[in-house]
């Protein structure tokens, strides 16, 4: 078994997604852009990344000015 990948936002382990039979089909997490550079866990994706994307849709100039957070 490989070492779990780490979330760039919370530094926790990125969860493995499995089929009902238990076979791992994804272990690379979520795209953390535009909140951070790299990959993140599902919880940080829900709490930080999705709201940042929604803000980018609603206020595209303000997000472009802020840029990606360097963590």
Distance between the termini: 28 Å
**What is the number of beta strands?**
4
Which whole number gives the mean pLDDT? 88
The profile of the biggest β sheet is: 2 strands, antiparallel
Look at the helices and sheets and give the structural class: alpha+beta
Placed side by side, the strands forming the largest sheet appear as 1-2
What is the radius of gyration computed over CA atoms, rounded to a whole number of angstroms?
14 Å
Helix and strand sequence: EEEEHH
Any low-confidence stretches, pLDDT <50, length ≥5? Answer: none
List keywords for this structure.
elongated; alpha+beta; 71 residues; two-stranded antiparallel ribbon
What features would you describe in this structure?
- With 71 residues, the chain is of the alpha+beta class.
- The protein has two helices and four strands, in the order ββββαα.
- It has helices at 42-58, 60-66; strands spanning 17-18, 24-26, 30-31, 39-40.
- The strands form two sheets. Strands 1-2 form a two-stranded antiparallel ribbon. A two-stranded antiparallel ribbon has the order 3-4.
Topology:
Blueprint: E1 17-18, E2 24-26, E3 30-31, E4 39-40, H1 42-58, H2 60-66
Antiparallel strand pairs: 1-2, 3-4
Structure summarized in a few sentences:
The protein is an alpha+beta fold.
């Amino acid at each position: 078994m490989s070492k779990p990948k780490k979330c760039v936002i919370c530094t926790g382990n990125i969860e493995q997604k499995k089929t009902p039979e238990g076979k791992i089909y994804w272990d690379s997490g979520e795209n953390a852009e535009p909140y951070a550079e790299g990959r993140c866990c599902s919880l940080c994706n829900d709490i930080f990344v999705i709201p940042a994307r929604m803000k980018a849709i609603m206020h595209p100039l303000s997000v472009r000015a802020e840029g990606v957070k360097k963590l």
